[in-house]
Design a protein that fits this description.
heterodimer, A: 329 residues, alpha/beta, Rossmann fold, five-stranded parallel beta sheet, 18 strands, B: 251 residues, globular
């Protein structure tokens, strides 16, 4: 009966949703491999231990708290050294990280320190007999691979949003762990964290994404997209590469092969023709709506529902209708 | 500066993929290949750094069969100085095995900076760069979208979900390149293409590490049910909203 390690990502002293996803996946793996414990590591400034209860509520038996005044910001080297040291000492069957920007930075360092392979950016992880297997989208989500990890601990990073956090109360007893590297000795230092607008949902976390393309004709017309996103109330705004390359929108909003990958419940593509490079980033959305004036545009093949016509006429009408629908519950 | 850029030859993603008969890899018949997008930006970033900071040497390294020489020549045509092929019959999926081979090559190279793309668009793992950094004991910053090098140190920005992280680090270091670091990769000029043919390209056996993660099954994603055009213009909006409520249940 082996235990499972999970890394719980925080920002500004608060848990990220991906932390609960990792603990949920670790719990499931622990139960599938004989009912061992889940040990979740929480790194931050003193006070970060206040987040332990939420990890316990999602299945963490032990919360490993690494608290130090110098760890208010992410320190890749301290986090990697401390996680690797603990995983090595703990005899874990598997370690679960997030494939968020932070997790993609952290997990490979930990794996290399341990001399272990890593299954990166997986959408599921399961026990299959004595092996740990994971599913991994490849080639811009055009292929899915089943990865078999022949290593103990089996290390994975889990794509944000791929699984839902599940409540599953465990003991959550807190154990304090000292950093394995003095924070002052870290060479890479985060000197500033510039947060986006407060209350704005990130593309990876928003249940609805409203995205615009060249069909909007000018940067200022993106306000149509923003108004529709506002009407949904739980939407983030995305854009195509053409639009971010032209500087209409920031690169951080680009969805596609070289940008973000999203899989929201609803994706609304406004004035987007549907180049393969864009479809790569959104084809796994649950429901896709396309609004485009060209009825031959490839986006209509990817979409569940399409409306052909002028976005400047259709989008405001849809914005009003969505507001109305939400008002009436 | 002496800069190494590690690049990968990948299938062009605009193509339709088929699964090979073994069920665990892509059928390569008739596929077109190119340098992975992020790697092209890494080569461009290296060229711009040395143009700005008064020269140096840029070495491109690629692991794989002889076909990767074409990708190395492309980087040489863009302006890199020499190439190294770490020869192996096929490129393993496991980034840790690849990182071991790259680290062995880079170890005594005396590089100020080692650049990678943030991920290869085919294997989509993004692990090789930071693993190489750990094996070499070098500082590492991943997915960099902006960077200033100033003597022996650098300051970079990396995009997080809904935030930007600003980091400072000393050189030598390993940096992986995200979109935004360069506007776009330059096209090789004819002169560059001619010059590239005469630039040195060394071939060495790849000292791959042991393989611990393998693709044991490869599948195409399930086909989506065909979509439908429900109407034209704003008149179709009420029907769309009805479908969103009743069929898709997203409103």
């Amino acid at each position: 009966m082996a235990n499972i390690f999970a890394f719980a990502e925080t920002r500004g002293g608060e848990l990220r949703k991906v932390a609960l996803e990792c603990v949920t996946a670790a719990r499931k793996l622990a139960d599938a491999t004989g009912g061992g414990e889940v040990h979740a590591m929480l790194v931050g400034a003193p006070g970060v231990e206040s987040q332990a209860a939420s990890l316990a509520a999602h299945g963490a038996d032990v919360v490993l708290v690494v608290a130090d005044a110098a760890l208010a910001q992410y320190s890749p080297e301290v986090a990697a050294a401390t996680a690797a040291e603990r995983i090595k000492a703990g005899g874990y069957r598997a370690g679960v990280f997030s494939a968020s920007a932070q997790g993609l930075d952290l997990a490979p360092r930990v794996a290399a320190k341990l001399g272990q392979p890593l299954a990166s950016d997986v959408v599921s992880v399961d026990a299959d007999g004595d092996s740990i297997v994971a599913r991994h989208p490849m080639n811009t989500n055009k292929l899915f691979s089943t990865l078999t990890i022949a290593a103990t601990p089996a290390l994975v990073s889990l794509r944000p949003g791929a699984i839902l956090p599940v409540a599953n109360t465990a003991a959550g007893r807190v154990e304090n762990v000292a950093p394995a590297l003095a924070p002052a000795d870290a060479r890479v230092k985060v000197v500033e964290l510039r947060e986006g607008a407060k209350g704005k949902l990130d593309l990876a976390e928003a249940p609805v994404v409203v995205a615009g393309g060249r069909g909007l004709k000018a940067a200022e017309n993106f306000k149509l997209v923003e108004e529709l996103a506002d009407a949904f109330g739980n939407a983030a705004v995305g854009a195509t590469r053409a639009v971010t390359d032209d500087g209409w929108r920031p690169h951080s909003e680009q969805i596609g092969q070289t940008g973000r990958t999203v899989s929201p419940d609803l994706y609304v593509a406004v004035g987007i023709s549907g180049a393969i490079q864009h479809l790569a980033g959104m084809r796994s959305s649950r429901t896709i709506i396309a609004i485009n004036k060209d009825k031959e545009a490839p986006i209509f093949k990817a979409a569940d529902y399409g409306i052909v016509g002028d976005a400047f006429e259709i989008v405001p009408a849809l914005t009003d209708a969505v507001r109305e629908a939400r008002r009436n519950g | 500066m002496k800069i190494a850029v590690c690049i990968k030859r990948v299938p062009d993603m605009e193509q339709r993929f088929k699964i090979a008969g073994n069920g665990t890899s892509v059928d390569e018949t008739g596929l077109k290949y190119a340098m992975s997008d992020f790697d092209e930006w890494a080569v461009e970033a290296a060229l711009q750094l040395n143009e700005k900071h008064g020269g140096g040497e840029i070495v491109v390294i690629s692991l794989g069969p002889d076909s990767v020489q074409e990708t190395i020549r492309k980087a040489l045509a863009m302006g890199a100085d020499r190439g190294v092929q770490l020869k192996t019959d096929s490129i393993p999926f496991d980034g840790a095995a690849i990182a071991a081979a790259l680290a062995a090559e880079l170890k005594d190279g005396g590089y100020d900076l080692v650049l990678f793309g943030k991920l290869a668009v085919d294997s989509s793992s993004g692990v090789t760069g930071p693993m190489v950094a750990e094996l070499l004991g070098l500082p590492c910053v991943t997915a960099v979208s902006s960077m200033d090098v100033n003597g022996g140190s650098a300051r970079a920005e990396r995009a997080l979900e809904g935030a930007v992280e600003v980091v400072e680090f000393p050189l030598p270091a390993v940096v992986t390149v995200d979109q935004g670091l360069v506007a776009q990769a330059r096209y090789p000029a004819l002169k560059g293409i001619m010059a590239a043919k005469k630039k040195p390209l060394e071939v060495k056996p790849a000292q791959l590490g042991s393989i611990g993660v393998q693709v044991t099954k490869m599948e195409l994603p399930p086909e989506r049910a065909p979509g439908r055009i429900i109407g034209e213009g704003a008149a179709a909006v009420p029907e769309l909203v009805r479908l969103l409520r009743e069929e898709a249940k997203v409103l």
